[in-house]
Amino acid sequence: MAEREFKGFGGLLLSADMRGSDEDPSVLLLHGGGQTRHVWQETADALVKAGRHVISLDLRGHGRSARSEDARYEFDACVEDLRAVLAQLASRPVVVGAGLGGWIALTAIGEDGGHLASGLVLADAPPEIDLRTAGALAASIRSAPAQTENVDPVFGDVIDVEKSSERISLAASGLKVPVLFVRGALSSFGNRDAANRFVEKVATAEFAEIEDAGHLAVFDRSDAFSAVLLDFLERRVPRVMPDYKQGSDARTLRDALGCFATGVTVVTTMSAEGEPVGLTANSFTSVSLDPPLLLVCIAKSSSSLAALEASQRFAVNVLHIGQQPVSNTFAMPGEDRFSQTPWQEGQYGSPLISGALANFECIKFDLHDGGDHVILIGKVERAKYEPRRDPLLYFKGKYRRLHFA
Ligand SMILES: Cc1cc2nc3c(=O)[nH]c(=O)nc-3n(C[C@H](O)[C@H](O)[C@H](O)COP(=O)(O)O)c2cc1C
């Protein structure tokens, strides 16, 4: 679990727990007034297990988020905080808000037309605040902060959700993302008729009730709530596998190709002027044992290509786990690569990186056109290797190490 700080309204720092892999679709959890992110513990566990990235945010004046020196705890400030946090995320999460957190999320997302979030779950935050709900709400928020020292006691005096009930109803009409409204069947907040009206009014909304649960069923019956939430997410905001089709974005294709884990090599040769030349390459493949052939693919844009094409010989140096700096040096343009790296001339004239896991000295066998790369095939004249070292690995754009369970 990692902690991250976001800049909220007026630069106030808001704190959140980040759990799961940030490559998974994300869910942002927003607790109710007088609570902290810790109330989501069980729900967050269930979401991470189901392959979601979870961000649990503390509202301003709550938990590890900063307190407002000048008591800016109005509903509007809380809505602006959420907008600011959503704008700082790399992807559009589903926002799950309980009680006050739900109204904040509904307002931010409903007014915004769906650019900031991909879905909304209202846990015991009825989208219509009638007089009875407003009364229950005011009482619950005013009494809650006193229950915990993790909340600025002034928060309950300033927060003014009841005054924003019209704004909330209006924002509800603007919701375009998938919405789930969940309430405890015994909750004093809202009622089933109002929920049905909401579902009729908002085409993307659905309603679920949790039996035997009162206000904030999320936490009373977190197992039942998690089941309803996961069902909603799987149906309405499913995990999508990135999909590349010929001509669509090259980034997705690169990421798909990056799912194939490789080692890392430095391909070297001696230029006609007798200068060592080399670049980092993970496109290395063994081709044939008889004759002994291997290949690497060199980008046509590579400044090393001319020397590799001109020379009759080249070498492939397989890097070990300690040679990540060598890989970086030979991948970076403008570096004086060989002055920073120990090397010596091999038996057949190609530069060999000292201490590599393996060195293959090759005579050029063939060159093929390979789109924006050239396929360089070498016949191995000599190979030596270090039997006791681990390789440097490369997977999904990152260096990795072998891990034996
Ligand atoms: C892990 C890794 C693998 C790479 N594999 C290749 C490769 O197979 N072929 C290639 O042409 N470039 C590859 N590159 C990129 C080159 O190393 C990089 O563009 C380098 O700056 C080229 O240098 P040059 O233009 O001096 O030849 C790789 C880079 C990294 C970090």
TrEMBL record:
Residues forming the Flavin reductase like domain are 257-401
Name the UniProt key words of this record, in alphabetical order: Hydrolase, Oxidoreductase
GO molecular function terms here? FMN binding; hydrolase activity; riboflavin reductase (NADPH) activity
Keyword Oxidoreductase among record annotations = yes
One of the Pfam families matching this protein, by short name: Flavin_Reduct
This protein's source sits in the domain of life called Bacteria
Could you say which protein family the record assigns here?
Belongs to the non-flavoprotein flavin reductase family.
Q: What is the protein's given name?
A: Alpha/beta fold hydrolase
The species this protein was found in: Henriciella algicola
- Give the taxonomic lineage as stored in the record: Bacteria, Pseudomonadati, Pseudomonadota, Alphaproteobacteria, Hyphomonadales
